[in-house]
Design brief:
The protein folds into two domains: 2-121 and 247-315, 3-Layer(aba) Sandwich (D-Maltodextrin-Binding Protein, domain 2); 122-220, D-Maltodextrin-Binding Protein, domain 2 (3-Layer(aba) Sandwich), CATH 3.40.190. Helix content is 45%, strand content 20%. The chain is built from 13 helices and ten strands. Strands 1, 2, 3, 4, 5, 6, 7, 8, 9 and 10 form a ten-stranded mixed sheet that branches. The radius of gyration is 21 Å and the shape is globular.
């Protein structure tokens, strides 16, 4: 009887998917659908470093920027669903692009399975030191006194920076020109050089400059002040109540990725995000860590879509 029990257990073990038993047995590719040096890239590298050590395999980051993150995200759709290709996602690619783009090239519900959340970060209105307005109110007054002359830099369409600039334009009733950049890195460089006076962007690429005073923050578009910029008010405090723009970051895998692999990745991701090392690095870039199950991440993406989609439709924004 014992021999039969042992034999049955051995048969059950061999029946488990080989990939799940051995995963990971070789390097993992993490697609970042934005250029290197930007906010999404920064979060990806923080987590990839910790995850690779936990999984015992290198995680190779591939940057495929363009079209608001849709180009890189489409690449992940075509990848084999074996856990060896993951994609760094954020609010723009999961909850903005499906409404903003006429054909984003992917369906988040059908083409991907969520692994888990990583972090959140607010958009910040920042300026070159030569820009005279110091508050949102002064910025609006300047824009109204100089219609069409204020250039505001943002990352490409499909990003929270771009949409928050469009929302500012509509809410404040000002005529400003939104200048699009391929990524947050190039935008920060031009802001530093004075080629653009104001930007709506995440903190990470500009944090050192904001703290050093080579760039100046006008307002934080979050529900609270940033601990790294305690003297910078929120938009709500600056006379624009309810004007918030937060981005959430997470990991996705191609649909069909085996559940045991998704569960393993989620478990390791949760450990990584709650580690002192990763939390410290996320906080240093102006963000807050987020921890979730795959199901909670799916619900979070739906919640974010319910915030951004009506706004996109109200503003009449559409990318063909």
């Amino acid at each position: 009887m014992t021999r039969w029990v042992i034999a049955a257990l051995m048969l059950l073990a061999t029946a488990l998917p080989v990939g799940a038993q051995e995963y990971p047995s070789h390097p993992i590719t993490l697609i970042v659908p934005f250029p290197a040096g930007g906010g999404v890239d920064a979060v990806a590298r923080i987590v990839a470093d910790k995850l690779s050590r936990a999984l015992g395999q290198p995680i190779v980051i591939e940057n495929h920027g363009g079209a608001g993150g849709t180009i890189g995200t489409r690449l992940a759709v075509r990848a084999k669903p074996d856990g060896y290709t993951l994609v760094m996602a954020h609010t723009g690619t999961t909850s903005i692009n499906p409404t903003l783009y006429a054909n984003p090239g992917y369906d988040r519900h059908k083409d991907f399975v969520p692994i888990g959340l990583i972090a959140s970060t607010p958009i910040v209105i920042m300026a070159h030191p030569s820009f005279k307005p110091k508050t949102i109110g002064e910025m609006i007054a300047y824009a109204k006194a100089n219609p069409g002359k204020l250039n505001i830099g943002t990352p490409t369409m499909g990003t929270g920076g771009y949409l928050s600039a469009e929302l500012f334009k509509a809410t404040a009733g000002v005529n400003v020109t939104i200048v699009l950049y391929k990524g947050t890195g190039p935008l920060t460089n031009d802001l530093l050089g004075g080629q653009i006076p104001v930007a709506f962007n995440v903190m990470a690429p500009a944090m050192g400059n904001l703290q050093a005073g080579t760039l100046r923050a006008i307002a934080v578009l979050g529900p609270k002040r940033s601990s790294l910029l305690p003297n910078v008010p929120t938009a709500d405090e600056s006379g624009m109540p309810g004007f918030e723009a937060m981005l959430h970051y997470g990991l996705l895998a191609p649909a069909g990725t085996p559940k045991p692999i998704v569960a393993r990745l989620n478990a390791e991701l949760r450990k990584a995000v709650t580690s002192d090392e990763v939390k410290k690095r996320i906080h240093a870039d102006g963000g807050d860590e987020l921890v979730s199950t795959p199901e909670e991440y799916a619900a979070d993406m739906d919640k974010e879509a319910a915030i951004w989609s009506p706004l996109i439709k109200k503003l009449g924004l559409r990318v063909q």
